[in-house]
Amino acid sequence: MELRQLAYFVAVCEELSFSRAAARCFISQSAISHQIARLERDLGVPLFERSTRAVVPTDATTRLLPLAKQMLSLESAIRAAVRASGPRIRLAANMSFASRSLSAIAAARAAHPDAEIEFVIKPFRQRITAVADGDCDLALIRGRVDQPGLMVEQLWVEDLVIATSSNHPLATRDTVTLNDLSSYPLLLPPEQEQVLLHNIIRSAFADLPVGPTFGPPIPPDHTATMELINRPEAWTVLYAQSPTEGLVVLQLAEHRLRIPVCAVLRDDTRRSPILTTLLTTLHSS
Protein backbone atom coordinates (compact mmCIF):
# COMPACT_ATOMS: atom_id res chain seq x y z
CA MET A 1 0.00 0.00 0.00
CA GLU A 2 1.34 3.44 -0.95
CA LEU A 3 0.34 6.90 0.20
CA ARG A 4 -0.34 7.96 -3.39
CA GLN A 5 -2.84 5.10 -3.69
CA LEU A 6 -4.64 6.39 -0.62
CA ALA A 7 -4.67 9.89 -2.14
CA TYR A 8 -6.20 8.48 -5.34
CA PHE A 9 -8.67 6.44 -3.28
CA VAL A 10 -9.82 9.56 -1.39
CA ALA A 11 -10.16 11.47 -4.66
CA VAL A 12 -12.40 8.76 -6.17
CA CYS A 13 -14.49 8.65 -2.98
CA GLU A 14 -15.04 12.40 -3.06
CA GLU A 15 -15.59 12.73 -6.80
CA LEU A 16 -17.49 9.43 -7.31
CA SER A 17 -15.91 9.40 -10.74
CA PHE A 18 -12.62 7.90 -11.91
CA SER A 19 -12.32 10.46 -14.72
CA ARG A 20 -12.83 13.47 -12.42
CA ALA A 21 -10.57 12.00 -9.76
CA ALA A 22 -7.87 11.50 -12.41
CA ALA A 23 -8.20 15.12 -13.57
CA ARG A 24 -8.04 16.30 -9.96
CA CYS A 25 -4.85 14.29 -9.36
CA PHE A 26 -3.34 15.26 -12.74
CA ILE A 27 -2.95 11.66 -13.97
CA SER A 28 -4.71 9.60 -16.62
CA GLN A 29 -7.92 7.72 -15.89
CA SER A 30 -6.25 4.41 -16.72
CA ALA A 31 -3.45 5.16 -14.25
CA ILE A 32 -5.80 5.93 -11.37
CA SER A 33 -7.89 2.85 -12.17
CA HIS A 34 -4.72 0.74 -12.15
CA GLN A 35 -3.62 2.12 -8.77
CA ILE A 36 -7.04 1.59 -7.21
CA ALA A 37 -7.04 -1.99 -8.54
CA ARG A 38 -3.61 -2.53 -6.95
CA LEU A 39 -4.90 -1.16 -3.65
CA GLU A 40 -7.89 -3.52 -3.83
CA ARG A 41 -5.55 -6.48 -4.45
CA ASP A 42 -3.30 -5.46 -1.55
CA LEU A 43 -6.27 -5.17 0.82
CA GLY A 44 -8.09 -8.20 -0.55
CA VAL A 45 -11.45 -6.43 -0.85
CA PRO A 46 -13.30 -4.49 -3.57
CA LEU A 47 -13.54 -0.79 -2.80
CA PHE A 48 -15.92 0.36 -5.55
CA GLU A 49 -18.76 -1.14 -7.56
CA ARG A 50 -18.18 0.15 -11.08
CA SER A 51 -20.76 0.64 -13.84
CA THR A 52 -21.00 2.78 -16.96
CA ARG A 53 -23.07 5.36 -15.07
CA ALA A 54 -21.83 5.38 -11.48
CA VAL A 55 -19.07 4.56 -9.03
CA VAL A 56 -20.51 3.19 -5.77
CA PRO A 57 -18.34 2.82 -2.63
CA THR A 58 -18.50 -0.55 -0.83
CA ASP A 59 -18.80 -1.12 2.91
CA ALA A 60 -15.03 -1.59 3.08
CA THR A 61 -14.60 1.86 1.54
CA THR A 62 -16.76 3.44 4.24
CA ARG A 63 -14.46 1.95 6.90
CA LEU A 64 -11.23 2.79 5.05
CA LEU A 65 -11.99 6.41 4.06
CA PRO A 66 -11.52 8.11 7.49
CA LEU A 67 -8.30 6.15 8.08
CA ALA A 68 -6.96 7.09 4.63
CA LYS A 69 -7.67 10.76 5.30
CA GLN A 70 -5.91 10.45 8.64
CA MET A 71 -2.85 8.93 6.96
CA LEU A 72 -2.71 11.74 4.39
CA SER A 73 -3.12 14.32 7.14
CA LEU A 74 -0.19 12.76 9.01
CA GLU A 75 1.90 12.95 5.84
CA SER A 76 1.19 16.70 5.61
CA ALA A 77 2.05 17.12 9.28
CA ILE A 78 5.35 15.24 8.83
CA ARG A 79 6.32 17.43 5.89
CA ALA A 80 5.46 20.56 7.86
CA ALA A 81 7.50 19.38 10.86
CA VAL A 82 10.70 18.84 8.89
CA ARG A 83 10.47 21.84 6.59
CA ALA A 84 13.56 23.99 6.70
CA SER A 85 13.08 27.25 8.54
CA GLY A 86 13.60 30.44 6.62
CA PRO A 87 11.74 32.89 4.40
CA ARG A 88 9.41 30.37 2.80
CA ILE A 89 5.70 30.52 2.00
CA ARG A 90 3.49 27.75 0.62
CA LEU A 91 0.32 28.90 -1.16
CA ALA A 92 -2.31 26.24 -1.89
CA ALA A 93 -4.81 26.85 -4.69
CA ASN A 94 -6.19 25.27 -7.84
CA MET A 95 -5.36 26.06 -11.45
CA SER A 96 -8.14 28.62 -11.83
CA PHE A 97 -6.15 30.88 -9.46
CA ALA A 98 -2.82 30.28 -11.21
CA SER A 99 -2.51 33.50 -13.22
CA ARG A 100 -3.38 35.84 -10.36
CA SER A 101 -1.36 33.86 -7.82
CA LEU A 102 1.78 33.72 -9.93
CA SER A 103 1.63 37.48 -10.53
CA ALA A 104 1.37 38.07 -6.78
CA ILE A 105 4.21 35.61 -6.12
CA ALA A 106 6.42 37.42 -8.66
CA ALA A 107 5.72 40.76 -6.94
CA ALA A 108 6.45 39.31 -3.49
CA ARG A 109 9.72 37.81 -4.71
CA ALA A 110 10.71 41.12 -6.26
CA ALA A 111 10.16 42.81 -2.89
CA HIS A 112 11.88 39.97 -0.98
CA PRO A 113 14.59 38.49 -3.27
CA ASP A 114 15.57 35.79 -0.77
CA ALA A 115 12.00 34.52 -0.39
CA GLU A 116 10.95 31.06 -1.49
CA ILE A 117 7.25 30.95 -2.37
CA GLU A 118 5.68 27.70 -3.54
CA PHE A 119 2.44 27.44 -5.51
CA VAL A 120 0.87 24.10 -4.55
CA ILE A 121 -2.06 22.62 -6.50
CA LYS A 122 -4.64 20.97 -4.23
CA PRO A 123 -8.40 20.36 -4.37
CA PHE A 124 -10.61 22.32 -1.98
CA ARG A 125 -10.70 19.97 1.01
CA GLN A 126 -6.99 19.25 0.84
CA ARG A 127 -6.23 22.99 0.75
CA ILE A 128 -8.11 23.52 4.01
CA THR A 129 -6.45 20.50 5.63
CA ALA A 130 -2.99 21.62 4.49
CA VAL A 131 -3.42 25.01 6.16
CA ALA A 132 -4.90 23.50 9.34
CA ASP A 133 -2.01 21.00 9.57
CA GLY A 134 0.66 23.62 8.90
CA ASP A 135 1.77 22.11 5.60
CA CYS A 136 0.73 25.31 3.76
CA ASP A 137 0.71 28.89 5.01
CA LEU A 138 -2.41 30.01 3.18
CA ALA A 139 -4.98 28.73 0.71
CA LEU A 140 -7.16 30.47 -1.85
CA ILE A 141 -10.80 29.41 -1.96
CA ARG A 142 -14.10 30.61 -3.39
CA GLY A 143 -16.62 31.23 -0.67
CA ARG A 144 -15.80 30.86 2.99
CA VAL A 145 -15.03 28.15 5.51
CA ASP A 146 -15.92 28.02 9.19
CA GLN A 147 -13.44 25.80 11.01
CA PRO A 148 -11.90 26.23 14.47
CA GLY A 149 -8.31 27.40 14.31
CA LEU A 150 -8.67 29.00 10.89
CA MET A 151 -9.38 32.57 9.79
CA VAL A 152 -10.70 33.82 6.46
CA GLU A 153 -9.67 37.05 4.74
CA GLN A 154 -11.55 38.26 1.66
CA LEU A 155 -9.27 39.20 -1.23
CA TRP A 156 -11.53 40.01 -4.16
CA VAL A 157 -14.95 39.27 -5.66
CA GLU A 158 -15.56 37.39 -8.91
CA ASP A 159 -18.47 37.51 -11.30
CA LEU A 160 -19.53 34.01 -12.23
CA VAL A 161 -19.81 33.07 -15.89
CA ILE A 162 -23.03 32.15 -17.69
CA ALA A 163 -22.47 29.64 -20.48
CA THR A 164 -24.79 28.24 -23.15
CA SER A 165 -24.53 26.32 -26.35
CA SER A 166 -23.91 28.50 -29.39
CA ASN A 167 -27.33 27.23 -30.56
CA HIS A 168 -29.16 28.57 -27.51
CA PRO A 169 -32.01 31.00 -28.36
CA LEU A 170 -30.25 33.77 -26.37
CA ALA A 171 -26.72 33.05 -27.67
CA THR A 172 -26.67 36.08 -30.00
CA ARG A 173 -27.73 38.59 -27.34
CA ASP A 174 -25.16 41.12 -26.13
CA THR A 175 -26.45 40.90 -22.56
CA VAL A 176 -29.05 38.86 -20.72
CA THR A 177 -30.83 39.07 -17.37
CA LEU A 178 -31.76 36.31 -14.96
CA ASN A 179 -35.38 36.97 -15.94
CA ASP A 180 -34.43 36.19 -19.55
CA LEU A 181 -32.82 32.93 -18.47
CA SER A 182 -35.45 31.80 -15.97
CA SER A 183 -37.60 29.89 -18.47
CA TYR A 184 -34.66 27.85 -19.80
CA PRO A 185 -33.38 24.79 -17.91
CA LEU A 186 -30.46 25.48 -15.59
CA LEU A 187 -27.97 22.62 -15.40
CA LEU A 188 -25.95 22.26 -12.19
CA PRO A 189 -24.26 19.43 -10.31
CA PRO A 190 -26.33 18.01 -7.41
CA GLU A 191 -26.52 20.43 -4.49
CA GLN A 192 -24.56 18.13 -2.17
CA GLU A 193 -21.61 18.42 -4.58
CA GLN A 194 -21.82 22.20 -5.17
CA VAL A 195 -23.51 23.76 -2.14
CA LEU A 196 -21.86 27.14 -2.75
CA LEU A 197 -23.04 27.38 -6.36
CA HIS A 198 -26.64 26.49 -5.42
CA ASN A 199 -26.63 29.06 -2.59
CA ILE A 200 -25.44 31.78 -4.99
CA ILE A 201 -28.21 30.92 -7.47
CA ARG A 202 -30.87 30.99 -4.72
CA SER A 203 -29.61 34.33 -3.46
CA ALA A 204 -29.53 35.84 -6.96
CA PHE A 205 -33.14 34.88 -7.70
CA ALA A 206 -34.46 35.59 -4.17
CA ASP A 207 -35.94 39.03 -4.90
CA LEU A 208 -37.00 38.35 -8.51
CA PRO A 209 -40.60 37.55 -9.49
CA VAL A 210 -39.46 34.29 -11.09
CA GLY A 211 -37.07 31.57 -10.07
CA PRO A 212 -34.76 29.35 -12.10
CA THR A 213 -36.10 26.38 -14.01
CA PHE A 214 -33.83 23.54 -12.95
CA GLY A 215 -32.98 20.85 -15.45
CA PRO A 216 -31.79 17.40 -14.39
CA PRO A 217 -28.65 17.42 -12.18
CA ILE A 218 -25.39 16.95 -14.05
CA PRO A 219 -24.26 13.33 -13.42
CA PRO A 220 -21.03 12.87 -11.47
CA ASP A 221 -19.19 11.48 -14.50
CA HIS A 222 -20.33 14.25 -16.89
CA THR A 223 -19.19 17.86 -17.34
CA ALA A 224 -21.35 20.98 -17.51
CA THR A 225 -19.90 21.97 -20.89
CA MET A 226 -20.72 18.61 -22.50
CA GLU A 227 -24.24 18.70 -21.10
CA LEU A 228 -24.76 22.10 -22.78
CA ILE A 229 -23.72 20.65 -26.13
CA ASN A 230 -26.24 17.84 -25.67
CA ARG A 231 -28.96 20.22 -24.43
CA PRO A 232 -28.68 23.44 -26.48
CA GLU A 233 -31.72 25.01 -24.80
CA ALA A 234 -30.05 24.90 -21.36
CA TRP A 235 -27.61 27.16 -19.52
CA THR A 236 -25.23 26.82 -16.61
CA VAL A 237 -23.09 28.87 -14.24
CA LEU A 238 -19.34 28.36 -14.07
CA TYR A 239 -16.60 29.76 -11.86
CA ALA A 240 -14.44 30.35 -14.95
CA GLN A 241 -14.58 29.39 -18.60
CA SER A 242 -11.86 29.02 -21.20
CA PRO A 243 -12.90 29.34 -24.86
CA THR A 244 -14.65 26.12 -25.88
CA GLU A 245 -15.89 25.32 -29.34
CA GLY A 246 -19.67 25.20 -29.49
CA LEU A 247 -20.18 27.28 -26.35
CA VAL A 248 -20.70 30.99 -25.74
CA VAL A 249 -20.34 33.13 -22.61
CA LEU A 250 -23.25 35.50 -21.97
CA GLN A 251 -22.80 38.85 -20.25
CA LEU A 252 -25.17 39.34 -17.34
CA ALA A 253 -26.76 42.81 -17.30
CA GLU A 254 -26.82 42.91 -13.50
CA HIS A 255 -24.01 41.73 -11.21
CA ARG A 256 -26.11 39.24 -9.29
CA LEU A 257 -23.88 36.18 -9.55
CA ARG A 258 -20.87 37.16 -7.50
CA ILE A 259 -18.65 35.15 -5.20
CA PRO A 260 -15.92 36.20 -2.76
CA VAL A 261 -12.42 34.80 -3.15
CA CYS A 262 -10.71 34.45 0.21
CA ALA A 263 -7.42 33.51 1.79
CA VAL A 264 -7.56 30.89 4.53
CA LEU A 265 -4.88 31.12 7.23
CA ARG A 266 -4.39 29.69 10.68
CA ASP A 267 -5.50 31.87 13.60
CA ASP A 268 -1.96 31.83 14.98
CA THR A 269 -0.26 32.74 11.70
CA ARG A 270 2.59 35.22 12.13
CA ARG A 271 2.31 37.90 9.43
CA SER A 272 5.86 37.87 8.11
CA PRO A 273 6.85 40.65 5.67
CA ILE A 274 6.72 38.13 2.79
CA LEU A 275 3.23 36.92 3.70
CA THR A 276 2.03 40.50 4.18
CA THR A 277 3.36 41.50 0.75
CA LEU A 278 1.78 38.45 -0.87
CA LEU A 279 -1.64 39.12 0.66
CA THR A 280 -1.46 42.82 -0.17
CA THR A 281 -0.63 42.04 -3.78
CA LEU A 282 -3.48 39.52 -4.01
CA HIS A 283 -5.83 42.16 -2.60
CA SER A 284 -4.84 44.76 -5.16
CA SER A 285 -4.17 42.68 -8.28
TrEMBL record:
Q: Transcription: is it a keyword of this entry?
A: yes
Which stretches make up the HTH lysR-type domain?
Answer: 1-58
Q: State any GO CC term.
A: protein-DNA complex
Tell me which Gene3D superfamilies the record gives.
3.40.190.290, Winged helix-like DNA-binding domain superfamily/Winged helix DNA-binding domain
Domain of life according to the entry: Bacteria
**Coiled-coil residues:** none
The protein's UniProt keywords, in alphabetical order, are:
Activator, DNA-binding, Transcription, Transcription regulation
Please give the Pfam families that the UniProt record associates with this protein: HTH_1 (PF00126), LysR_substrate (PF03466)
GO MF annotations, alphabetized: DNA binding; DNA-binding transcription factor activity
PANTHER family membership: HCA OPERON TRANSCRIPTIONAL ACTIVATOR HCAR (PTHR30346:SF0), TRANSCRIPTIONAL DUAL REGULATOR HCAR-RELATED (PTHR30346)
For this chain, the family text in UniProt reads: Belongs to the LysR transcriptional regulatory family.
Question: What is the recorded name of this protein?
Answer: DNA-binding transcriptional regulator, LysR family
Record the organism: Nocardia amikacinitolerans
